[in-house]
Design a protein that fits this description.
Helix content is 77%, strand content 0%. With 491 residues, it is an all-alpha fold.
């Protein structure tokens, strides 16, 4: 028997498995985002046919949409506590399982009352998803891809809406509204499989005092960092985030920031973007387009333009600045709503007029995604210190969903009673109010550290002068100190 010493094999290069695990978190979150987008938009086509089957009034049509949003408000209110108590992974499993079950049930609903009840429960799942999915993605992906992963989740929701319209178009010939509503049950069920295999996020393990498990997961998802040092940083961040309350949010020095964020969330929805998402086939029919082919295919091109606008905003937001992107997006919405008002006011909806209306809808939706859609969560995350950040985001989301509820419920009734021209004129007035609000309250935060941005709000909407110099000629419109004119080179 040989007594030669055992040779020690050379160390193996770092495995690619950790990188794959980090990307699997992001991919799983993105799939949930696609399902969320699909389930939000699928009713737009199904409503045309189920309204005839169930003989719905305009008010009942609104309820089929608004009941989903009402459930979303409840889900968003409990989503954060659920994700903290049970874990981000368990919350995501609840979301995926609920999507699969309630989507399938909505597809076989025998009456509109059953459909409303199921859509309320689906809305609760959507509300939980709105809170839990971005948390899951942001807390589980490595720092080097975190920004891209969160942005990919936002893009994925738009992709889901795009898919909705192409599916609706493909199924419109036979009026298959049950398939329109039910198809997303398949990917929702399938996404449970990778979710079961993935761990929870390191941040949640730290929140529950399981620091060793947190370090293990950190080493699995991001091999480029010292997992114990990162866990210590997470513990320090959690300590800073404790103690935030709604009462603190409504008092100085953060009442101004709360007013801005809540106002932005409300204007984001009340200006009518989900009127297009929920009711686009009816809008195009009112505009003069005929046949299911046009009324279901045209919204697909609208959403493709929205997807391109979202990607464009992500690519340029840190180059041009937040204010330029936000104000140009809202300003374009105002102009397009004025065009739509004029189109419907002519009363002659045929030929070139119908295509002008289509172009206005397309540019209105793209402008929303370029401005509001790309920036609302950026501003919400930047406005508050760590201990108030989640509270501020929750309040903004509530304002957003309440406005969405109003649009979902009352838009079809307004179209039927007041007419399309008056309805879009009203939305135009609200968009103009949003533009004025953003012009006077939105700071330019490009390139600023979070601490600087929070000091801006504490300082009454003015940037503090740099140490050793006096900033002259700046004002609250761009976050400087005296004049309303923006600086030549925005910071």
């Amino acid at each position: 028997m040989s007594t030669a010493p055992l040779s020690v094999p050379p160390p193996r290069p770092p495995s690619a498995a950790p990188r794959r695990t980090g990307r699997m978190f992001a991919l799983t979150g993105a799939v949930v985002g696609v399902i969320y987008g699909y389930d939000t938009g699928s009713i737009s086509g199904a409503l045309v046919f189920l309204s005839k089957d169930f003989q719905l009034t305009e008010t009942e049509k609104g309820l089929v949409n608004s009941i989903l949003v009402f459930g979303s408000i409840l889900g968003a209110l409990i989503g954060g506590k659920l994700a903290d108590a049970l874990g981000r992974k368990v919350a995501m499993l609840i979301v995926a399982g609920s999507y699969a079950v309630f989507v399938a049930l909505s597809a076989i609903a025998p009456t509109v009352e059953v459909l409303d009840a199921v859509r309320f429960l689906l809305g609760v799942a959507i509300g939980i998803s709105i809170v839990a999915a971005p948390l899951y993605v942001a807390e589980s992906t490595p720092a080097r891809i975190r920004g891209a992963s969160v942005a990919a989740y936002q893009v994925a929701t738009v992709v889901g809406i795009v898919l909705t319209y192409f599916v609706n178009w493909g199924l419109s010939g036979g009026g298959h509204w049950r398939w329109m509503l039910g198809l997303s049950a398949i990917p929702a069920a399938l996404v449970v499989i990778p979710l079961l295999r993935l761990p929870d996020t390191p941040r949640w393990y730290v929140l529950k005092g399981r620091t060793e498990r947190a370090a293990e997961v950190m080493a699995t998802t991001d091999p480029d960092v010292d997992p114990h040092a990162e866990v210590a940083a997470v513990r320090a961040a959690l300590a800073e985030e404790s103690g935030g309350s709604l009462r603190s949010l409504l008092r100085k020095p953060y009442a101004r920031a709360a007013f801005f964020v809540v106002g932005l969330g409300f204007f984001c929805q009340i200006t009518g973007i989900n009127a297009v998402t929920y009711y686009s086939p009816q809008i195009f029919e009112e505009m003069g387009f005929t046949g299911n082919g046009q009324n279901f295919l045209l919204p697909s091109f609208v959403e493709l333009a929205s997807l391109a606008a979202t990607v464009c905003a992500i690519l340029i937001i840190d180059r041009l600045g937040r204010r330029v992107v936000l104000l140009s997006g809202i300003g374009t919405m105002v102009v397009m709503l004025a065009v739509l008002t004029a189109v419907f006011a002519t009363g002659e909806l045929h030929g070139a007029t119908t295509w002008v209306g289509f172009a206005a809808i397309l540019l209105f939706t793209a402008a929303f995604n370029f401005g509001f859609g790309a920036l609302i969560w950026v501003y919400a995350s930047e406005a508050f210190p760590a201990q108030l950040r989640s509270t501020g985001a929750s309040v903004m989301l509530t304002a957003d969903l309440v406005a969405n509820l109003l649009i979902a419920q009352f838009f079809p009734s307004l179209m039927a009673r007041a007419g399309a021209a008056a309805t879009f004129a009203g939305l135009g007035v609200l968009a103009l109010a949003a533009l004025v609000f953003a012009a006077f309250t939105a700071p330019e935060t490009k390139g600023r550290q979070l601490e600087e941005i929070q000091e801006y709000w504490r300082n009454g909407g003015r940037w503090p002068a740099p140490v050793g110099s006096a900033r002259v000629g700046a004002g609250p419109l761009d976050g400087s100190a005296a004049s309303p004119a923006p600086p030549a080179s925005p910071s």
